[in-house]
Amino acid sequence: MRELFTLRPFLRPHRSTMLLVLLSILATTGAGLLAPWLIRSLVALLSTESTQAETLRGLIGLAALLLVTYGARSVGQFFTTHLAHVVAWNVCHDMRTALYHQLQRFSPGYYTQRQSGEIVSRVIKDTDNIEPLVADVVYDFVVSALLAIGIIVIFFTLDRGLMLWALFPLPFALIGIWWIGRRIMPAFDAEGERTGELSALVQDNVAGMREIQIFGRERHESHRVHLLSRLLAREQIYARKLDAALYPVVESATGLSIVLVVWFGGQRVLAGQLALENLVAFVLYLTAFYQPLWSLVGVNEAFQRARTSLGRISEVLRTEPEVLDPTDGLNPARVAGQIRFERVAFAYQSDIAVLHAISFTAEPGQTVALVGPTGAGKSTVVGLVARFYDPQRGRVLIDGHDAREIQLDALRRNISVVLQDVFLFNGSVRENIRFSKPEASDAEIEAAARAANAHDFIVALPQGYGTLVGERGVKLSGGQKQRLSIARALLKDAPILILDEATSAVDAATEHAIQEALTRLRQGRTCIVIAHRLSTIRSADQILVLEGGQIVERGTHQEIVAGRGLYQRLYERQYDVHA
Ligand code: ADP
User: Is the C-beta atom of 52 inside 6 A of ligand 1?
Assistant: First the structure.
């Protein structure tokens, strides 16, 4: 039930519409209570002795009233349904955008720990599941409660003894509903979880279809999907079985009530203790009375689904981003670009330290090259500069200010990142370059592309700068993507550059083009580079040799190549200097 409180802030803006819904519910319910009363009057009219003209007048009056009642009811129902859905879909919309906004606050760590399919399903599917809760469930409860109270009051005024017989099966029905309902909740939870697992698996396999086919894993993967889907189907069937078991409970309670009322009421009519029209009214109201239980059963599934989804949504909304944007943080337009690590220690998981007491300073315009074996912590160091993570101990300083005191957008405005695996959005080449500077003119984009040695291959594409790339567009080679990424960084023109040099092999001409572009990009910027190229390392102002999260050697190439340490070994192995 705690999950329901997640809804509150989302309902608040729609208070006035919800009030209108409530008014039309009152009108509809009122009309619903009036209709059987009119039938009762009809029976009374027809069973009393009066002149034909009087009876006719009464009939006309009753027919007119019935017409008005049903008219009011239908109009009321239209407004109730329509307005309730207006509120509900708007709540969904607000939730989707709130979720997405929240997702953008999470650092990369959040995304490496989760499957993207699962995250997407929360934004799209779970929010959709909330709609019936807001549109139907809440109102059904209000209508049901009002109807039940209204009918009990009517029963009370008509005949208290008969009322007790009419209500006698109710507690049993409620106990039955409660008993089944308790089992339904976990069943729906399990179903929701399994659906998430299945969609994550399918999403993963669709992304890796090439590998599945190359390694001939089709049968194995089919089997995995089959098993999970079968499990899901079993859980869906079980949940529906429990759901279906609610029907006999309500049906037999209704039936039993009617039998009791007909039996005891009939005797009282025969004994002259109860007017016939009142017995008729009892039976009519009784079917209306158990109606709320029906809707309780009907909305149960929607309610359970929504409850599970709300839980998943509120989990995302309640998660605090690991990297927090400081309130009233510093907001430098352009930093000079000094980067300083002061005894920085970091761990992804609390017990496994990845960096131990890293200290170094990169003066504005300098290049610091990080070298060392895989897993040494090089990517982690550059991730800390961009504040993808925050250190557990020590500080990262930009121009002498703790990075945590600088507004995130100001910090990131001052940093360009060129990574090995470049992500291109679905869109044109031009749009992808412009991503780093939305206000850039076409001329600026072309200038950046030229400086990145990308212009020539871009104009050779089918539609030049307008060519669609990304998942749904032309596939570019690794070297081409990297040059687009360099063009992006050049266009952004940030004073700090984070660079992860490619290890993937490209042909000599491409290599030369990339080298040249990178040299241009590094010009006049503070650059922290995960270096693989000898030329980069040689020209670096400072080389940090990392091993096991520690700086084991540092200095310029000249200073440390002569030693017999790790750098020397890496250097000889990687560049085969004796060859
Ligand atoms: P390098 O870039 O030098 O290859 P990394 O900085 O990527 O090294 O990794 C340093 C260590 O941190 C490795 O042991 C790696 O397994 C671990 N690591 C990297 N990323 C994560 C992560 N997101 N979660 C947990 N551990 C990680």
Answer: no
Cβ of 544 below 6 Å from ligand 1: no
> Which residue has its alpha carbon closest to ligand 1 atom 21?
348
Whole-model pTM: value is: 0.79
Q: Taking the CA atoms of 568, 572, 575 and 578 in sequence, report the sign of the dihedral they define.
A: positive
**Structure token digits, residue 42:** 């009809």
What letter does residue 465 receive in the DSSP assignment? G
Q: pLDDT tens, 541-566?
A: 999 999 999 999 898 888 887 777 77
Query: Ligand 1 pocket, 482 CB below 6 A?
Result: no
Start-to-end CA span in the chain (Å): 71
DSSP string, 49-86: ---HHHHHHHHHHHHHHHHHHHHHHHHHHHHHHHHHHH
Determine if ligand 1 sits within 6 Å of the CB of residue 112: yes
State if residue 548 touches ligand 1 by the CB under 6 angstroms criterion: no
494 close to ligand 1 (CB < 6 Angstrom):
no
Please, what is the angle between helix 508-522 and helix 442-451, to 10°? 120
Q: What are 129-139's pLDDT values in tens digits?
A: 999 888 887 77
Give the span between the Cα atoms of 295 and 292, in whole angstroms. 5
378 lines ligand 1 (CB under 6 A): yes
Structure tokens at 4: 């329901």
- Classify each residue of 533-554 as buried b or exposed e, where b means 16 or more C-beta atoms within 10 Å of its C-beta: beebbeebebbbbbbebebebb
Ligand 1 atom closest to the Cα of residue 349 is: 25
Between CA 82 and CA 55 the distance in angstroms is: 40
The burial class, CB within 10 Å (0-12 / 13-18 / 19+), for 300 is buried
Q: Is the CB of 348 under 6 A from ligand 1?
A: yes
pLDDT at 579 over 50: no
Where would I find the H helices in 159-275? 160-167, 170-207, 209-214, 218-270
What is the Cα–Cα distance from 423 to 470, expressed in whole angstroms?
8
Please count the residues of the chain.
579
Residue located nearest, by CA, to atom 13 of ligand 1: 375
Closest atom of ligand 1 relative to the 376 alpha carbon: 3
Taking the centre of ligand 1 as the mean of its atom positions, its distance from the CA of residue 354, in whole angstroms, is 7
